[in-house]
Every structure is written in C-alpha cells, then in structure tokens.
Amino acid sequence: MFFKNALLSVYNSPANNPRLIDASQRLLKLGYTLCGSRGTAERVAQAGMPITDISNLTGRGPILGHQVVTLDPAVHAGLLARHTEADYEVLEGQKLLWFDFLWAALYPLLEAIEAPGATEESVTKKIDVGGRALLCAGAKLTEPRIVVASVDDLEEVFTWMEAHQPNRKKNLRRMAACAEGVVTIYSSWSADYLAERSIQYPHHNGPSLKLEWEGRT
Predict the structure, then answer these.
(1) Among 48, 46, 41, which residue's Cα sits nearest to residue 6?
(2) Going by C-beta distance under 8 Å and a sequence separation of 6 or more, which residues neighbour residue 124?
(3) Strand order in the sheet with 101-105
(4) Where are the domains positioned within the chain?
(5) Does domain 5-194 bear CATH number 3.40.50.360?
(6) Contact between 138 and 144 (Cβ < 8 Å)
(7) How far apart are CA 39 and CA 68, in angstroms?
(8) What's this model's pTM, rounded to 2 decimal places?
(9) pLDDT, tens digit (0-9, with 9 covering 90-100), for 112-162
(10) Strand ranges (DSSP E) for the chain?
(11) How do residues 44-66 score in pLDDT, each as one tens digit?
C-alpha cells in the first residue's frame, strides 16, 4: 500500500494561496501524491501540478451549495485507518487512499462575525463543518497523521519533514494537539455567536506549534 498521499482542503484567500502552491511543490518533492477538495484542486492544477480532485474518490462533486465536499467515508477512511492488515484490506478493497498528510485551512469565521454589517446568513456560511471534521480525524491518536491546522505552522512542519521527521511519534502528538486546539477555539467562536455573545471565549487562532528536534524541546 502507498502511504504518501496528501489531502489538501484550503480556504481560498490571498494569504493562503501562495502557501498552497509552495506546500504542493514541497510535498511533490518529498514524494507525495496530492488530493484536494474541489477549489483547492483547481488552484493547484492551474499552477501546473498533478492533483486528484476528491470527487474522484467520493464519486460525487460538492452538493448542497458546496456545504458537503469532504464529509464522506471515502475521505475519512483514509485519515482514520490504522496500520493493521484488516484496515489495509478495507482501503485496498474499496480503492481508497491512505492519507499521511493533511492541511485543512478553515473558513475565516471570526472575520465573518466581526465584519461590518455581518448578518446571520453571512456568518453561518463561514461556519466550517467539513474542515473541522478533517482535522479531528487526522488528529485522532490511534494513528495520528501529519496535520497542519494553521497556515502559520506550515514552515515548521515542512522543515521537520525535510529533515526526515525526527522524533516522529512525539511531534505527531504535538500536531494533533494543535489541531484539536484550533478546532476547539474555532467552535467556541460559533458557540459565542449563537449565544449572542453571552459566552466569552478567547478570540485567537489556537495554540502555536513547536516541534521537538534532537537536542531541542
């Protein structure tokens, strides 16, 4: 089974797009094949790099106004499968990919909440369901993947990968913890908004990632 598959689901923004192209180039140099959600795959393909649209795995394109894209067993199985013969057989039997790397950049919910003239419709459109589910799946500690939950962590993660992933097990746990932290704080913004600001949560993007290297903690 080929394990070096990367799943990219990155919100389309001026800040994210140059990082997406750079990340895709570096993943390819590291020997990964790329798979992406519809918009992400289109941007990478337009830059001249090979990438598979996730709909080729799920058998369907985005539905319900792009609300359902990655919420599919064909996607999550690749993040939740364990290193067991039974799980390998399921993936191979159903022609599914094992994802070793995930970068999910969530919709900018806090920006939507704080935007002048924000409405309930404009805010709820930016509540990311699929991205949070991807991060939680990738961070599950039975078999954590390389998970990037913040664009600010990309360089740290790639430097570590290009150094042959020292202290892999411990650093995967740190990435998982950061992913869970990002999801928790993101969800708190949604809860705060739904409660009409009667609940006060910290308005920041989550924990920053610091990986452990040989001789560095």
Answers:
(1) 41
(2) none
(3) 52-53, 33-36, 5-10, 101-105, 146-148
(4) 5-194
(5) no
(6) yes
(7) 13
(8) 0.88
(9) 988 999 898 888 888 888 899 999 999 997 778 999 998 889 999 999 999
(10) 5-10, 33-36, 52-53, 101-105, 146-148
(11) 999 999 999 988 887 666 655 55
